[in-house]
Amino acid sequence: MFSMRFISYVISAILFLSFSPVLYASNYLIEDVEVDVTAESVTKAREQALIEARRKAFQVLLENNFTPVEQSNLQKISDETLEEIIKTLEVVREKQSSMRYSATFNIEFKPKSINKILKKDSNTLNQSITKTTKVLLIPVLVEQEKIHLWDGNNPWFNFWNEDPKEHENIILPLADLEDLKILPIKSYKNQDQQAFAKLLNHYHTERGVLAVLNDQTIELINFTKDAMLQADAFNLKTSETQAYSEAQQLILEYIKHPLSTSSTTIKPQEIVDIFVPINSFQDWIHTRQILEKAKCVLSSQVLELTRESGKLRLSLNSNIDQCLPQLRQLGIMIEQLDGTWTLSLSPMTGIINNASNIP
């Protein structure tokens, strides 16, 4: 037999749950969010109501799940980012007139997206930000010459994003509207140094790596706030289905090594874009190796890469006419064809095989 006191506790709990204005099906689902907005038109009223509802639900989420410090950081996010971290928005009921809109919503948030924002903002607790030694990794996928950067059709990016393991040396971008504004696809294609520097500042780090996956080739392009630095290409050996995992392990090992920035200590005298026909992946690798050894080449940056061709941007410590004879001695021929600087490997016997031994 239950005591009257026990029964009263049960009844009190039921009443509390029944009349609580916000109910939780999970920690990230906020139910019964009510808004009532009047504006110059019902369309405007509805737009404002949605913004208000998202903020209202987000505030409840913060107060019930996060510390005051975490709340302070998360409250700074923009309305655009807030919209992106919502998983579902259900209209429970709504009423509208010519200038008024009222509704009740159930709003569920994406836990992983919120946790990412917290990690990104954890270094902003003080105005003097301590720079992290982590590497900002940007997975880029090239499919049939189409570049996938921030769009949702980038399974290479999603592979990292959905990886349950935490990689202590890596920062993965949120790929939200703020990232898109800082580094739009046009700036990526043009290798806009200022845009890349802004992205590093945005994530409070000093080094970034573009991980460009193109079929069975992974190109790793290093960049800092001052320059685009060396790029390294690797041929993946596993099947296409295992390529992501192989590339990931390669990258995790690659970023452990410190980045050499000696090439940025000398200001380039000339920067030249070079078209490179590719007969085989091995030719491409040897070409890159030879250019790294050439004393007149400060750095070579990959602008484009397909199965048939590549495009390199060479930073030279002299003008190209002075550099050409040295490159010829190393087995690289560069000439202008139809107004385009074009590179080819010399047919000299052994020049490719001995590339790694060039003084």
TrEMBL record:
<dbReference type="Pfam" id="PF09839">
    <property type="entry name" value="DUF2066"/>
</dbReference>
<dbReference type="InterPro" id="IPR018642">
    <property type="entry name" value="DUF2066"/>
</dbReference>
<protein>
    <recommendedName>
        <fullName>DUF2066 domain-containing protein</fullName>
    </recommendedName>
</protein>
